[in-house]
Fold:
Amino acid sequence: MMYLDFKNANCKNCYKCLRSCPVKAIDARDGQAKIIDSRCILCGHCTHVCPQNAKSVHNDVDCILRLLQKSKRPIASVAPAFVASFGLNSFEPFRAALKSLGFYDAFETSEGAAAVTLEYKKLLESGEYENLITSACPAVNRAIELYHHDALKYLAPVDSPMVAHAKILKSRYPDADVVFIGPCIAKKREAKESGALVGALTFEELAQLFVQKGITLEATPQAKSKTPLPKAEVAAMSDGQPAKTIKSKFYPISRGIIKSFDEFPGGYEYIAVDGVGRLGEAINDLLSVKHVFLEINACEGACVNGPCIIQRAGGSVEANVLVRNYTASVPVDVLTEHPDIRKTHKKRTAGDRVPTEDEIKSILASTGKTELCHELNCGACGYSTCREKAWAVINGYAEVEMCVPYMREKAESMGNVIIENSPFGIIVCNGDLMISEINRRAQALIGISNPEYIFDCFDPTAVFKASESGTSVCVQKLKLDKTNKYIDINVVPLVKEKSLLIVLIDVTDKVNYDEELAKVKHDTLAVTDGVIEKQMRVAQEIASLLGETTAETKVALLKLKDAMLKENNS
Structure:
């Protein structure tokens, strides 16, 4: 089952989610980010940093609604961070709302957290652990099981508060179907794998259910629960007992686990580290020290800043204040016994292939990294080192083209080759007509090697027009005085870059040809006129000669006719 993924979004070589992922569980190929389920620890940090808000968390709303209809005793285990998401200062309105939704009853997970703290205390007092890492955060546990096998011996062999509470609830109600409600995505997988719970809802999903069923916390009656409170809470509220803090309710804030101790077993330093950015570093550092109790939360600021928390105006600061005030307002949790909540954490593998050194070098070489000094390790692709990225390419999680410096260098190199070998003159200038780029062909056409402004080259009227109008402008057959060249000018505004692209086309040969052709035409016409005039003169002369001959012939024939007539008459 995919508990977390990304919706299709307008991803454009961003890699922000990949950079933020502590275990590189993101497939960034084909222009869309996808979660690699076998590698993911479900910290949900990638969903926070995604600028496209492409988070897609597996939704269990329909599944839980069916459970509420069919189950005899569905019981909710609610993370103490509910006060931060829903702005409450009491659990009873929340409990009543959940009952209105269909739950048999609801209890706070802090009871399980109290049991976990007791187990931590026992482990520390035993002196068997050189160091101890808390096991309350399932994302941290998964990270150690998958990627930090050397630190697995330090991971406390204790259930998380959620699983511990589910076991406590099932010890009271054997037929209970326990559903966890909290701000965490990783709890969904942990709930399914634990066997103690039937599922987990996020606060976002619960808010969706409240809206769907028309339940508002303000309008929910704070009726007394039909289910008796745990004996611990009853004992705490007995007459004469002072109201003390249930310290396990501190769990959802930073250093909350450390705060839950009534007293610290000696011989250990108690340190808290929050955030996936420090996760791997803190675990690795622990291998070099001794006698440290390390509280690790995958979320920066702990659970009150979880991936599915309902954000409030005051953010994590207000969330901390709400949890602290709430914790200080409830009676002490006097937990004396609980079911077995010990757990063995096992080594896991993601199933990735370990490439050979030759394969790594081959991928590095494909992006021009043939020597160690070529490995920039800039992190622009999302991976910390070039070798990490090569590993991802070999495993099918990344593409060679994700190397931003290489692709930029390649694009610039190709662009420069194209521009420098273009048969056209190319100039780029800014809005002030200062030249930023000019190729050799343009320099040759204008006869200036390094002009500073366009008006040093030619009449800039067309460039001014293009800049002011934002549309392309063309000028034909402009003569350049320095070189006696004729050029066509095309000016194209580059709006996003706030620049102007000027293309110069040499039309000198065409202009010279046109002039030569015009001269030939002119000379031809002149010759033609002379020939026509001469022809007309010859024709006229011929006509004149023909006219005289015709007259003479007419006279001769008339004389012959008269002679013949006279002869006949005689």
About this structure: The chain has 20 helices and 16 strands. The longest strand covers residues 485-494. Residues 309 and 554 are 129 Å apart (CA to CA).
